[in-house]
Amino acid sequence: MARLEASGLRRTLRDIDGPQGSSVIVNGKRMILLCSNDYLGLANHPLVKQAAIDAVSEYGFGAGASRLVSGNMEAHRMLEYRIARFKSTESALVFNSGYHANLGCITAIAGRDTAIFSDRLNHASIVDACLLSRAEVKRYPNRDVDSLERLLKKTRLKKRLIVTDGVFSMDGTIAPLPDIISLLERYNATLFIDDAHATGVLGASGRGTLEHFNISHQNIIQMGTLGKAFGSFGAFIAGDAVLIELLINKARPFIYTTALPPSVCAAASKAIDLVDSDPGLLMRLKERRKQLHDGLSGCGLDTMGSATPIIPILLKDARKTVEASCALMERGVFIQAIRPPTVPDGTSRLRATVTAGHSATEIDTVISAIKKVLSA
After folding, report:
1. Region for 192 from its dihedrals, namely left if φ exceeds 0, alpha if ψ lies in -120 to 50, beta otherwise
2. For this structure, is 169 an active site residue?
């Protein structure tokens, strides 16, 4: 702990009062919130809340057991049906978190006979899943398809799994999926996409990175979360029916975990309905994202090539980044400092996330505060 403190890497918990929204109360002070993944502002939406309340009235709260024991309820099945429709897949399976979904799926489909090719900036849950799978793991530089192909050429294993984030959560950049897709047939590989930060965000109707690039391919497995753009909790794997049956039988985080509360599933289902019925949600998100990105870029700040509502401000030094975050809080703007080990040494940054719930006035206030803090 002393070493973490000395290097500016010690982490602490900060209490938030009130619901998630464009602003929250921190230490008794209201602040504009720019570090939530509630991209569409649905976490406190009245219809999402009412769906959860109605489900509690009908089903109670806890599911009571894992779904293979006595915890399989109508709310779970309805949510999975809704997800499969949303993602245009045969089937889907709900997990209790994105970490559970990545760990469960990758360890179920990969083993000692498998070569996994993983982007170096993939989420920590993917890194852990690859290690636990006992597969031969090859990591390629972030979004470097040429390096990926060189690794594919070298492997002798016939089972090949390419794993990538759809949107890289600390950079806000998008995986080069069209180029990766071109490798699937050539090298008889399957693609696993962690679409946690793209589901509900990218594409004309929020379907994610595949819709963003207008891609359809049978050798793709999609993971997505319900606790970000959908404002609920949990995650899912979407794919063909055989894959989902395999996961029900082999995915240990699914088999050995008490099922999500039905109220959580009902809230997520309602959120998906809202995304489908209100295109204004995505439109507002894109407008606010452009406003913030253009404002920061106009100040000469390095936003690291972000193309999504995740907009980093590269400051490099960990201690300087923490000091900037604290200074912004004094001005009523809450943006978290992101430091190693979450990001590589020398790449500490402020990670701003914009939502559909932010007003144009709030974004202008944020840009002004950042200008003053970082020019001081």
Report:
1. beta
2. yes
